[in-house]
Amino acid sequence: APAPAPVNVTAILEKAGQFGVLIRLLQTTKVGDQIDTQLGNSNQGLTIFAPSDGAFANLKPGTLNSFTDQQKVELIQFHVLPSYFSASQFQTASDPLRTQAGGSQGSFPLNVTATGNQVNITTGVTNATVANTIYDDGNLAVYQVDQVLLPLSFFASPPPAEAPSAP
């Protein structure tokens, strides 16, 4: 049997419509390419939380532009879980869930709570709800979320510098 066609996350989002900002960020950060490569090379699958253009429009003006290029990469990676979750698996997922952001340290966790069919995601900055399933093939799940998931670490102030010791 021929191998299944490679999944293209950008094409899935384009087909769904209303994800222009996310698509642009996936392309400019190259995270879209990383996702496509990972899906081709991994059997763990991926889960993507996709904020709609409306969710990006709800951010404070200038928020995205205030992020460095590295933060934009981390922001997009923060919307990606390094394994596949079906909608029903969120019922039994144990928090916090590790995201692609923050590398192996997993310093960008998400908390997910499911009540009935409603799935809520908390980042410490954002409380979002999964609006619907855009795509699910058993290896990749793409869920529309009503808010951009903002990592707490972007907004936490750095620890104060230690006072110099008295001579």
From TrEMBL:
Record's GO cellular component terms: plasma membrane; side of membrane
Top-level lineage group: Eukaryota
Major subcellular location class: membrane
Compartments in which it is found: Cell membrane
Domain spans labelled FAS1: 6-149
BP terms from Gene Ontology: plant-type secondary cell wall biogenesis
Record's keyword terms, sorted: Cell membrane, Glycoprotein, GPI-anchor, Lipoprotein, Membrane, Proteoglycan, Signal
UniProt-listed InterPro entries: FAS1_dom_sf, FAS1_domain, FLA_A
Annotated membrane topology: Lipid-anchor; GPI-anchor
Record SMART domains: FAS1 (SM00554)
A Pfam family of this chain: Fasciclin
Function: May be a cell surface adhesion protein.
Family, per entry: Belongs to the fasciclin-like AGP family.
The name this protein goes by in its record: FAS1 domain-containing protein
Annotated source species: Genlisea aurea
